[in-house]
Write a sequence for this structure.
């Protein structure tokens, strides 16, 4: 056996409780990014970890746990959208006034920018939304996103590049400054 095949992934030796503690916030942030209602996002996060716990014995430590748990999260999200029979919307997790020293006028302007950004994200193609959500809300690397979405890493990088380019162009076109 070669040294590379003899090594286990570091997550493979951790108990589920520690993995839960490590990945709860990123999964919850990803789901809050994808759905409008934070209550629904919290419920979906619970569903993700329930499915993960039920199937933990099937997890093989030959790949990153993050990719495995986010694949479950993505599938739970897709099931949620199908169940609602509506188009997916984005909820960008930007905390505006909490703990901010901004004036009320600045807070209103920021609120308008957030609304504009939410609409721009909502208008992206589904593949672009998936990559942007996993990259920024899930805080995942391109290789992990590729594994979750069943695409090559180069395809994910291209989707990410095109999504950001499209967002930038639309933002400038609608009067923002890039």
């Amino acid at each position: 056996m070669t040294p590379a095949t003899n090594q286990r992934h570091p997550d493979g030796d951790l108990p589920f409780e520690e993995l839960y503690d490590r990945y709860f916030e990123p999964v919850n942030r990803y789901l809050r990014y994808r759905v409008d209602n934070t209550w629904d996002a919290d419920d979906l996060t619970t569903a993700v970890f329930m499915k993960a716990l039920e199937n933990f014995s099937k997890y093989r430590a030959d790949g990153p746990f993050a990719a495995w748990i986010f694949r479950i999260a993505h599938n739970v999200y897709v099931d949620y959208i199908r169940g609602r029979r509506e188009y997916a919307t984005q909820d960008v997790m930007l905390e505006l006034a909490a703990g901010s020293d901004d004036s009320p006028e600045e807070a209103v302007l920021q609120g308008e920018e957030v609304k504009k950004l939410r609409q721009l994200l909502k208008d992206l193609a589904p593949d672009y939304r998936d990559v942007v959500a996993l990259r920024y809300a899930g805080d995942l690397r391109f290789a992990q996103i590729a594994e979750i979405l069943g695409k090559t890493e180069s395809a994910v990088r291209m989707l990410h590049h095109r999504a950001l380019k499209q967002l930038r162009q639309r933002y400038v076109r609608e009067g923002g400054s890039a």
In short: The chain has two domains: 9-98, 107-177. Residues 107-177 form a domain with the Arc Repressor Mutant, subunit A fold (CATH 1.10.10.10). The longest helix spans residues 153-173. Residues 1-10, 86-100 have pLDDT under 50 and may be disordered.
